[in-house]
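Protein modeling request. Please complete all fields; requests missing the sequence field cannot be processed.
Requester role: graduate student
Desired output: 3D structure, token encoding
Chains: 1
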Amino acid sequence: MLSERQEAVIRRIPGGETITVQPGTPLKKVLKQMRIPRDSVVALKEGQPVPEDTILKAGDEIELINVISGGKY
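Delivered output (73 residues):
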């Protein structure tokens, strides 16, 4: 019998840093613990952006994608 994941998984791309957190943890708290400025990443759950006030649930998999900007103004 397969058991369901009891934690949420946060993965930073690129870099590959992966951490697990307890359900009920706000995403913004995780970003603070990881020392990641909120405006430097986009958080995705199942390929869709999620806000920083998202409360993580058991089995959630969140990818943190670095925001890259540039160009000429």
